[in-house]
Design a protein that fits this description.
- Its EC number is 3.4.21.102.
- This is Carboxyl-terminal processing protease.
- InterPro entries: ClpP/crotonase-like_dom_sf, PDZ, PDZ_6, PDZ_sf, Peptidase_S41A, Tail-specific_protease.
- With 339 residues, the protein is α/β, with parallel strands linked by helices.
- It folds into two domains: 72 residues, Pdz3 Domain; 259 residues, 2-enoyl-CoA Hydratase, Chain A, domain 1.
- 27% of the residues lie in helices and 23% in strands.
- It contains nine helices and 14 strands.
- Strands 5-6-7-10-11-14 form a six-stranded mixed sheet, with helices on both faces. A four-stranded antiparallel sheet has the order 2-1-3-4, covered by helices on one side.
- Helix 8 crosses helix 9.
- The chain is globular and about 65 Å long.
- It starts with 20 loop residues before the first strand and ends in a 16-residue tail after the last helix.
Length: 339
C-alpha cells in the first residue's frame, strides 16, 4: 500500500495517491510478497521505466501508472491535516526545501475550508540560508527576509523577497524550540518581524553566523565565519535567538495564563518581545541572558500544537500576538556592515 508520496519524486505528479494498493510491479504480482521484496522491485537504474498496477480505495477497477525512476533527495517537509488546519513539519533546509513547501502549500490552498497554517520548526538545525529566504518569499508579498553583515564587503547582503503570499494572508503559527537554529531561525524571524506569523514555543538556539568552507590541499576543510545574520527589524540572531510571542517553556500553568492574557487583549511576553527587537549588535552576554530568561530554551512539547490551534481558532488572540511586534523604527545605518 502507498503510505506516502515524496514531493521531490516522479510519483508526485502522477496518478498515484496515498492509500492505493500496489497489485503488481512491472507485471509481477505482489500477492504473497513481503514489503521488502516489493521495495526491491521498485528500485532500479535511474531513468528506467517502472510500471505499477494500482487499486485506489473505493474503486473496483485497477489502473496502471508508468514512471521513470529518478534519484530523489530526502524529504525535509512533511504535511499533516488537522481539521481545517494544515501542519508543515520542516526538518531541515536542503536544496529542495522551499520547492517542497511550495508544492504542499499549493495543494493545501485548494481547500476552501482551510483556516490556518502551522509551520513546525522544532528541532530544525537549519541548512541552506537561501532556502530559508525562498521559503519566506512563499509567505511574504515583499520585504527584507534577512541581512548578512561582515568585515568583507562581499559578505554584506540584503536578502529581499518579492514573491507573493501563496496563502493570501491566512493565519500562520510557527513552532520553535531550543534546538531551532540557523536557517530555521531566519525563517521564523522573517515571518514574525513582518507580522506574518505568530511564533510559539521557547527561545531558539541563537545560531546567527554564516560560514563558508574552504578546501585544503590535504583534502581537509576549513570553516570560516563569514558574516552574521541580522533580522528584518535589525536585531542580531547570534546568541539572542528568536523570542516567541507566546512562550510555552515555563510550564502548563504559565502557558494557560499567557492565553488568558491574550484573551484580554494583551501579550504576556510583550516586554521580552520589545527588548529582543530593540537589541543591536554588539550585545553583551548579560544582556542576552536577561532577554532570554523570559522564555528559556527548551524542547518542544505537545502543548505547542494545541496553543497554535487556539490562536488560529481565535482571530482576536492571533491579532493581539501579531500586533505585539514593534514597528520598524531603526535607522538605515543598522543595515551597514559591522566593523
Amino acid at each position: 500500500m502507498v503510505s506516502a508520496i515524496n514531493a521531490n519524486g516522479p510519483a508526485w505528479t502522477s496518478e498515484i495517491d496515498t492509500g492505493d494498493r500496489v497489485l503488481a510491479v512491472n507485471s509481477q504480482s505482489t500477492t504473497g510478497q513481503s514489503a521488502a521484496t516489493v521495495t526491491e522491485w521498485l528500485r532500479g537504474p535511474e531513468d528506467s521505466a517502472l510500471m505499477l498496477r494500482l487499486l485506489s480505495p473505493g474503486q473496483r477497477r485497477a489502473h496502471t501508472v508508468t514512471l521513470r525512476r529518478a534519484k530523489v533527495p530526502p524529504e525535509t517537509v512533511f504535511a499533516f491535516v488537522s481539521g481545517p488546519i494544515v501542519v508543515l513539519r520542516v526538518t531541515a533546509f536542503s536544496s529542495d526545501t522551499a520547492e517542497e513547501m511550495s508544492q504542499y502549500l499549493d495543494q493545501a490552498t485548494q481547500d476552501k475550508n482551510l483556516r490556518g497554517l502551522i509551520i513546525d520548526l522544532r528541532g530544525n538545525r537549519g541548512g541552506v540560508l537561501q532556502q530559508a529566504v525562498t521559503a519566506a518569499a512563499l509567505l511574504l508579498d515583499h520585504g527584507v527576509a534577512a541581512v548578512t553583515s561582515g568585515r568583507d564587503p562581499q559578505s554584506n547582503h540584503i536578502w529581499a523577497v518579492q514573491g507573493g503570499d501563496m496563502t493570501n494572508g491566512l493565519p500562520i503559527a510557527v513552532l520553535v524550540d531550543g534546538r531551532t537554529a540557523s536557517a530555521a531561525e531566519i525563517l521564523a524571524a522573517a515571518l514574525a518581524d513582518h507580522r506574518r506569523a505568530v511564533v510559539i514555543g521557547s527561545a531558539t538556539l541563537g545560531k546567527g553566523l554564516v560560514q563558508t568552507v574552504a578546501q585544503l590541499p590535504d583534502e581537509g576543510e576549513l570553516f570560516v565565519t563569514w558574516s552574521r545574520v541580522i533580522a528584518p527589524l535589525h536585531w542580531p540572531l547570534q546568541g539572542l535567538g528568536v523570542m516567541p510571542q507566546v512562550c510555552t517553556s515555563l510550564g502548563e500553568a504559565d502557558t494557560n495564563r499567557a492565553l488568558h492574557t491574550l484573551a484580554s487583549g494583551r501579550l504576556a511576553n510583550q516586554a521580552a518581545i520589545t527588548a529582543s527587537r530593540a537589541a543591536r549588535y554588539p550585545l553583551t552576554v548579560p544582556n542576552i541572558l536577561a532577554i532570554r530568561k523570559a522564555c528559556p530554551a527548551a524542547l518542544g512539547n505537545d502543548r505547542d500544537i494545541s496553543v497554535a490551534r487556539d490562536l488560529i481558532n481565535h482571530p482576536a488572540w492571533y491579532k493581539t500576538a501579531i500586533a505585539a511586534i514593534p514597528d520598524d523604527a531603526a535607522p538605515a545605518a543598522q543595515l551597514s556592515a559591522a566593523p
